[in-house]
Write a structure and sequence with these properties.
alpha+beta; Protocatechuate 3,4-Dioxygenase, subunit A; five-stranded mixed β-sheet; four-stranded antiparallel β-sheet; about 20% strand; globular
């Protein structure tokens, strides 16, 4: 993102980076273990949205709290395909680096953090991902993995890059998988911009510690959103341009998904009025 200048003798909390957050996050986990149960949850309720051990593991979805998304059969079909991160990754590989920002570990990515204050408008959407390890003969959840998720806003723009929101960092965040490989983000339904099928980007890391550097990623991929859900969502106010853009596209001819998207097609439930839940298994 475009960083705001500070005096040489001034260090802001958000300037210290994700590596600064990690000891604090680990300390919270230790407190959770000591207090246990409901008392711990109450004690940590004020810790803020950057706590990956908070509400992200209990967000209600079609499979219930703490359960893997539907569609587990696809896990045995192979690893999630490797895809381009695109021109707006925000991971340091092409300009700005949100992974170095303190506060990027958070379940709710709707608003910007640090020095930025923008909030992305759109249909509330919960993204539930389950990471699986295919390294051995047995398919097992990849506990402790981390995912960096990012996508465009309702206008089809990417924070940290596009004119007007280059100083924002909303719709970007990192979460850590629980013991069952599950993690959750709260966001908005993304637009369909010209030339691309509606999608979200993500990078998979072996751990939260590793997510501080893009060189440590295990996989870069994209999830596709089903056409029926997109048609319903784009009938809502604010998504008017997406209607026209989607009408000119086909997922079969999309530059990313044209070579196959069965492992990347997310399940979407809900409605524009109730909000959406997007679920996808991520085998790596």
């Amino acid at each position: 993102m475009t960083h705001h200048g500070h005096g040489a003798d001034t260090t802001e909390e958000h300037d210290l980076g994700l590596s600064h957050d990690l000891p604090r996050i680990m300390a919270r986990r230790g407190l959770l273990g000591l207090l246990g149960g409901v008392g711990a949850a109450a004690a940590l309720s004020a810790c803020g949205a950057d706590d990956p051990t908070g509400s992200s593991g209990t967000t209600a979805g079609p499979s219930g709290a703490g359960q893997p998304p539907d569609g587990g059969a696809q896990v045995a079909e192979g690893e999630i395909p490797e895809e381009t991160a695109g021109p707006y990754p925000g991971d340091g590989s092409n300009g700005p680096d949100v992974l170095g920002e303190s506060g990027v570990v958070r379940s709710d990515i709707t608003a910007s953090f640090g020095t930025a204050s923008g909030v992305a408008e759109g249909i509330p959407t919960t993204v539930r991902l389950t990471v699986y390890d295919l390294a051995s003969d047995e398919v097992v959840p990849l506990a402790g993995a981390a995912i960096y998720l990012w996508h465009c806003d309702r206008e089809g723009r990417y924070s940290m890059y596009d004119e007007g929101i280059a100083d924002e960092n909303y719709l970007r965040g990192v979460q850590e998988a629980d013991a069952d490989g599950n993690l959750t983000f709260t966001t908005i339904f993304p637009a369909c911009y010209a030339g691309r099928w509606p999608h979200m980007h993500f990078e998979v890391y072996p751990s939260l510690d590793a997510a501080t550097d893009v060189a440590n990623k295990l996989r870069t991929s994209q999830l596709a959103l089903p056409e029926d859900a997109c048609n319903d969502a784009y009938a809502s106010e604010g998504y008017e341009q997406s209607v026209q853009n989607l009408s000119q596209l086909s997922i079969e001819t999309d530059g990313i998904f044209s070579d196959g998207y069965s492992l990347q097609m997310a399940k979407v439930t809900g409605s524009p009025d109730e909000g959406y839940t997007v679920t996808l298994n991520v085998p790596v």
